[in-house]
Design a protein that fits this description.
Elements lengths: L41 H8 L2 H34 L1 H4 L2 E3 L2 E2 H42 L1
Antiparallel strand pairs: 1-2
Helix pairs in contact: 2-4
Length: 142
């Protein structure tokens, strides 16, 4: 079987470079196969960052994320404190070999997934439309 590439040097390794990929080597002298779009300038980014619309987006995000984060951390710390200082309570059997500590520990996982699901719904309904409006406006102005 014949190969287009020369064999590696005696006792060495192949030092040849890989042939260019189709994206890297445009055909017919074209500058690029992909259309280029104008990018917003730094001044435009700063103007958007200082706009009331962007401030509202940040306020909407923060009013959701911060309280939920504080509540989850408090819930987690309560679990840790109960585990360390209320061993008798955490060891209380609820049924069979299932005790309070196991139920609260599993509730930590359930709470994590619940918060992620609630956040994804919140983002899809409130944050994404606001962010898309800002993005569209920036792309139109560029």
């Amino acid at each position: 079987m014949a190969s287009d590439t020369p064999p590696p040097p005696e006792g060495g390794t192949d030092t040849s470079t890989a042939p260019p990929t189709p994206e890297a080597a445009p055909k017919d002298g074209a500058a690029s196969a992909r259309p280029t779009t104008a990018q917003p300038t730094t001044a435009q980014f700063v103007a958007v960052q200082e706009s009331d619309e962007f401030a509202e987006l940040r306020r909407t995000y923060r009013s959701f994320a911060f309280p939920l984060t504080v509540a989850f951390i408090a819930w987690y710390l309560l679990y840790v404190l109960l585990s360390n200082y209320a061993g008798d309570f955490m060891g209380t059997k609820l049924f069979g070999n299932i005790n309070v500590a196991l139920v609260l520990g599993l509730a930590q996982f359930a709470t994590t997934f619940l918060i992620a699901w609630i956040y994804s719904r919140h983002a899809a309904r409130k944050l994404d439309p606001q962010a898309e409006a800002i993005k569209s406006r920036m792309e139109a102005d560029a």
